[in-house]
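Morning F.,

Quick status update on the modeling queue. The single chain you submitted on Monday has been processed. Sequence for confirmation:
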Amino acid sequence: MGFELDNILINQILFHMENQEEVFVLDARKNQIVNSANIDNDDKNYIALPVWTPKDGYRLMEKFTVKLNNPVVREELTDALNKNKGVFRAFRDVLEQYPEIEKMWLKYKEQKIKTRIINWYNALREEWGLEPIGFEPEDTSSLVLEDFIFKEKEDFNIAAENANGELIGQIIARLEGAILYIDTLEVNPEYRGMGLGKTLLAKLLEKADKLKFDVSIDVPKDTDFFSRSLLLENFKPAMQRFIRKNQTMSVSF
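Structure tokens below.
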């Protein structure tokens, strides 16, 4: 006994796994999903689908929230998960306010459930004495960035806009001699954690390389995550900045 797992069947299994009202099984002879209420339970050609419970769904939401780099949305999703009732509805309500992050969630969820399906299928193949199949998860970051528009406003000013044409991030640099100094690299809080900052930087560096300019940027403390991104772009630390706070104490009379 055996069956071929193609993308069509994967999507059908994925859809029926989340149905908490009815129980479905796979008819291995026809590669079709059928309701378990309409089958002969002794027929071994009917195979139980991978188990997916509300608890699995909740854990997946938790993992997505913890990994989310956007602090604004992460806090709102955490509040939704901590509710006593209506957690799933509250989670969806938050994501509906942030379409780009909602898209990230849907792809993340799809890939995680697909991984569960592949593992289930490979366990069956092991029973049948067959080699397991491979599975390469998709990169979801590029799918999100496709929704944004990057525009060169001036010589060294590149802006990021959403689908409505609203400014959501920008990088601004000034040229002094042969060095390009980055004065501004910012992304609106609700759009952070999607790779926009890295993309803006990469676009500016591409232009700097063509013009053969060195590039300098000051990085505030407590931004180790961004420092690592700079190192990946071949930036090297060149100086340390020390600041002495005003020591004058105000005296009240």
